[in-house]
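Problem 12. The chain below contains 645 residues. Write out its predicted structure in token notation.
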Amino acid sequence: MKRILPLLLLWLCNYTVANTAPQLPVEAFASIPDVSSVQLSPNGTKLASVVRVDQAKLKGTVVSIQDIETGEKSIPLHTDNQKFVILSLQWANDNILLISAKFPANRYGTPTTETRLVKYDLTTKKTSSVLPRSVLDRLNWIPQHQGQIIDLMPDDPDNILLSLDGMGENVGEDSVLKVNLAQGKSSYTQNAKKKIISWITDRQHKVRISIYNDDTEYRIYEQAEQKSDSRLLWTFKAFSEDTVWPLGFDADPNILYVRAYHQGFEAIFKVNLTDPNLTKELVYANEATDVEGDLLYSQLKKKVIGISEGDGEEYTFWETEYVGLQNGLKAVLPDAHNYITQFSANERRYIVYSTSSTEPGTYYFGDRDEKTLYPIANRYGKLNSELLANTQHLTYEARDKLKIDAYLTVPKGLEAKQLPTIIFPHGGPISYDSNDFDYWAQFFANRGYAVFRMNFRGSAGYGYEFMKAGLKSWGLEMQNDVEDGTRYLIAQGISDPKRICIAGASYGGYAALMGAAMTPDLYRCAISVAGVTDVAYLVKSSRRHTNYEVVKEQIGDDLDALYERSPISKADKINIPVLLLHGDKDRVVKVQHSREMYDELKSLNKPVEYIELENGDHYLSNNDNRLATFKALDKFLADNLNPKL
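Solution.
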């Protein structure tokens, strides 16, 4: 078993830690992860992973496969992260690895993101599309998304079920295709139905649940048998408290697990579909936070065993055997969140991902029979946890007395007093920050800045009322929460009021620019990475998408008012240096947002710099673009905040 040790492990250098951590190279933080998506084959003998490479003749990302017993390696796929980006890996069976990827494209003149599913056959050592040309020709259209696996069918490992999106008049209507991985043959398991956007199978691999969406209305249907008539289970509006989202089935085809609100917070229930009242039986709930994540199902035990996120942000198991394993991991890997991401089919071997605010992430291979646990890969190989800054949880009150959770990262070895500070609101905005590792925060802290990340109202995970408080609140109460957090740091003496920069990406970039415009005396500079600058344009540009009505419900539909709550309408109020960065292939927030903001600021003779990232997407997937972004951030902050390290 010791042959596994050099598998992917990127051993760390030995540093001597002084009172303050040495300044590490930008590449240590800004490079895309060295290793990700580590996957164990069902028989527990092979490991596949996505690995970053930076060699003279090979740059980008590769898929790496290694035999645990023999050490034999293969690299079936490489990408420069421009033509396409590898999203994830999954073993369909012991012989076939499935590779999901995305790439930028255009459909009918509209920029889109396409997804594809590729298979690698370990026997033939060939890589090919899961949907061969013969299948696509028979479909008469090329689905935009071809990587939506809804059932790996472990009882029938030669086949998988794929959900395919419709085209033309059938946009937003998904069908289900059964694909034979060995022969490439396919057949319809479920035909598309009007406005059905998603399907869920039971553990017998029958399509049972369908999700209907029309504007802001959702309906959940159940069919007792595949392709039979459906009955309505639940109906609800987007962002309503009576939502009931199906998660999956137990071994019993009549027991469906769902996520719904319990005392104002999302919780897990199970429902017996033979019960005419569809009574929801509570299975798991947190006291004051939502329960998120996916069901954990044991194919070996034939039962649901937990949820992939729970109390303490770790996997929550309901079965004693798995709780014992998790407690054992906590004993040997203390002060970290330890995620058992995968078991082999017989559940004797497993993969653990361990991380914390100062642990960039380490993958471990466990063997329950040999009672061993080996580190096999570091997610960020150039980062040593001893050099990273601690993050502490804080709370403060917004001006209307609403409690806001936040996270403060202080440069290692420095006292939290009169520090140059980065205010860093998250994107989404229905997302959240946590105490897990954040490479942005650690980069800023390593450069001598305190970093403050707040979960302003509307952030995910805090219950229905908190989420609802963020609806249609762009530039209003959500923005006030960010400002109030900044003033809290000043009042506590943590931040030097003359050296505070507000920065963010996506929605965070919007909040940064709005902070610069609405409170010009509060910040010394502002940074927007792929930020929204015209909210009215954001809403208008979503009209051709199926989620347009949901966007309006979340953000608003008074375009005049939304424009007034946009940074571009307030460019004349911005008097501090601004740095804009944006990828020209961004399919989430179009590059026009930053281009037009730059033009407006420049025409007003405002201090602005704009960097456009060639072939850049919304997520800085290309390593060169990510490095260019962080080097620009480094210089801009040093020029404007002058940290004292």
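Discussion. The two ends are 45 Å apart (CA to CA). Students who got a different answer should revisit the alignment rule from Section 12.3.
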